[in-house]
Structures are given as structure tokens and as C-alpha cells.
Design brief:
By secondary structure, the protein is mainly alpha-helical. It has a single domain (3-105), classed as Helicase, Ruva Protein, domain 3. Helices cover 58% and strands 4% of the residues. Helix 2 (21-32) runs antiparallel to helix 5 (81-97). It comes from Xenophilus arseniciresistens.
Length: 107
């Protein structure tokens, strides 16, 4: 699945709850280590999730603090490393949409 196809859905989900695209981008940059140019490059290149995460400069060291359920599955228990990173991102965007402050989201 292309990251660039899911990214607009993340933004729409956040905006429906009066959050911003900038906040979505900040979360993605925090998780992956990309700068804004790198994030936009992958969106423009229609990178799939595997490439997007494989080329990420550095997954944040506090990623293990992300806990909870997404789509009925605990993110900390997802066995596939790629799917776990995708679920971490989903969880962070869910937290944004639910009104958590950025300080709490970015652990």
C-alpha cells in the first residue's frame, strides 16, 4: 500500500477533529526522523509503506512507549515489524484526532 494514498486520510481524520496537517506532519516526523522535505519527497514519489519506513532516518527511540489498540489489535503485540510501525503511526494519529495534546502524543 502506498503511504501517499493513506497520508491524505490521516490529514482528513485530523482536520475533521479541528487538528491540522502540520500536527500530522509533526507526528510523522517525530516517529520516523524525516525532515519535512523528506516526508514530502516520499509522498510525491508514491512510496509504499515498506519503502517509507525502510528509508526512515531513525525510528524514535520512545516508540516502545506507544501502547493501545488499533483495529482491535494491541500495537505493542503486532508480530510483523512493518505492520507494527504502521499501527504505531495509526495510533498516534488516532490520539491526535481524539484531542490529546502534542506533548502527550510525542511521549
Amino acid at each position: 500500500m502506498a503511504f501517499s494514498k493513506v497520508y491524505p486520510m490521516y490529514v482528513q481524520k485530523a482536520q475533521r477533529k479541528n487538528r491540522s496537517k502540520d500536527e500530522v506532519d509533526r507526528i510523522i516526523r517525530w516517529l520516523t526522523g524525516y525532515d519535512q522535505a523528506g516526508l514530502e519527497w516520499h509522498i510525491g514519489q508514491h512510496s509504499d509503506f515498506a519503502t517509507f519506513f525502510a528509508e526512515a532516518p531513525a525510528i524514535h527511540p520512545n516508540v516502545s512507549l506507544i501502547k493501545g489498540v488499533v483495529c482491535g489489535v494491541r500495537v505493542e503485540d503486532v508480530p510483523d515489524p512493518l505492520m507494527q510501525k504502521i499501527r504505531y503511526l495509526d495510533k498516534l494519529i488516532d490520539e491526535l484526532a481524539k484531542g490529546k495534546t502534542m506533548d502527550k502524543i510525542l511521549r
